[in-house]
Amino acid sequence: MLSAKAEQFTESVIREMTRLAQKHNAVNLSQGFPDFAAPAEIKEAARQAIADDINQYAITWGAKPLRDAIVEKFARTQNVRVDPEREITICCGSTEAMMSAMMAIINPGDEIVVFEPFYENYGPDAILSGATPRFVRMQPPKDTNSEWTYDQDELAAAFNEHTKAIILNTPNNPTGKVFTRGELEFIRDLCVRHNTFCITDEIYEHILYDGTAHISMAQIDGMRERTIVINGLSKTYSVTGWRVGWAIAPPHATQSIRKVHDFLTVGAAAPLQQAGAAALQFPQSYYDKLSESYVVKRERLLKILTAAGFTVYKPRGAYYIMTDIVRFDFPHDDPRFAAPSRDVAFARYLVQEIGVACVPGSSFYNNAQDGASQVRFTFCKKEETLAAAEERFRKLRL
Ligand SMILES: Cc1ncc(COP(=O)(O)O)c(C=O)c1O
Known about the structure:
Elements: H1 4-7, H2 13-23, E1 27-28, H3 40-51, H4 64-78, E2 88-91, H5 93-105, E3 111-116, H6 122-129, E4 132-137, H7 152-158, E5 163-169, H8 181-193, E6 197-201, E7 227-232, E8 245-248, H9 251-265, H10 270-279, H11 284-308, E9 311-313, E10 320-324, H12 342-354, E11 356-357, E12 359-360, E13 374-378, H13 383-393
Parallel strand pairs: 1-11, 3-4, 3-5, 5-6, 6-7
Antiparallel strand pairs: 2-8, 7-8, 9-10, 10-13, 12-13
Helix pairs in contact: 3-10, 4-10, 5-6, 5-9, 11-13
This protein binds pyridoxal-5'-phosphate.
C-alpha cells in the first residue's frame, strides 16, 4: 500500500540518536548542531527583517540580496563568478538543495558515484531521485599524520556510460577528509571523460584544521559547466534550525533545479534569507575565529576520546571525529542493547548506560557490517558539554 521507494530506507539514525539522548538525559555528541549561540549580528539581522515586514514569499529561487551576497562571496573566496539570475537557487537547507539537484538531473537507469562512508542523507536522496549508487570505499588513516584514502583504480572503475554524477563532500562528514587539488583534478578527469556532473556538498567549507584549504570543485579547470555546488547557512553561521541553503549550478541545470524546488517547498523563510545576506558579508576575521574556536574543540574531544579508550581518526575539516570501538568489551548480548550490528549496540549502551550519545558507524555505510566497528562523535558543542561527556566517560571500561 505504501511507496516502495520510502520502504527502502529507514528513519534517520542521526536524528534518532538525538531523540534517544533527550530520553536518557545523555550528553548529545551525535547530531551536528552547535549548542552555543549564533553570532549576535545574524540574529539582529533576522529580527530587523521581520520588523521590516519581510514576511511574505520571497521569489521562489531566492531573495535577490541573498543571491547577490552568494555571488560576491563565491567570487571573493573561490574566485568563481556566477550569475545570480541564472545560476543560484535558494532552498530550505542544503538538504533540500541536494535533493532538488538530484531530482533535477536523474533519469531512470542513471548511476551516481558516492564515496563511502557517506553523509547518511545521500542514500535516501539516491532512492527518491531514482539513482543507483556505486560506492567507492575510503580507508581510515594508518596514523594521526595520514589521511583517509581511496583506490584511484576503484574510483575510475565506478564510472561508466550510465554515470550521471559523482557526489562529493569536502570537507567531509563523517571522516573529516579535505580533498586536495590533485584529488579534485583526478575526479575532474573522470567527470570529463564520462561526461558527468559533480554535485559537491561544501557545507563545511570554513571549518578547517592543520593548514588545509577548501577548494571548490567549481574552480577546477573544465568543471565550471558540470559542477553543482551545495552549501548553506547551517554550519558556517551556527544556525542549523533556520533551514537556508542553496545550489549553484550552470544555467541549464539551474532551470531544472528551480522547477523541482518550487513545487517541493516554494521557498525558504524570507526574513532568514535576508539575514543570511548580511551574514555572507561578514569579514574574513569571522571565519578565522570560527576555525580557531573549532581547533580548540577538536583537540579537546580528541583528548577525551583517546583517554576513554577510543581509536580516533583526526579530522582535517568539519566537526566530527570518527572512531574505532573494536577494543571495547561491552555487554553487547544484553537484550536492552540488542541491535543488528555491533556499533548500534554500542551506541545504545553508550547512551543508556554511560550517558553519551554518538552516531553508529553503520549509518554511513551501504552495508551495515562495514561500519560495525566505528562510531562518530561531534564537537560543535560548548566546553561545558564536552566536559560533561568527559565526566560520563569515566564509567566506560575497555
Ligand atoms: C555533509 C552535510 N550536508 C548537509 C547537511 C545538512 O545541512 P542543512 O542544514 O543545510 O540542510 C549536513 C548536516 O549535518 C551535512 O553534514
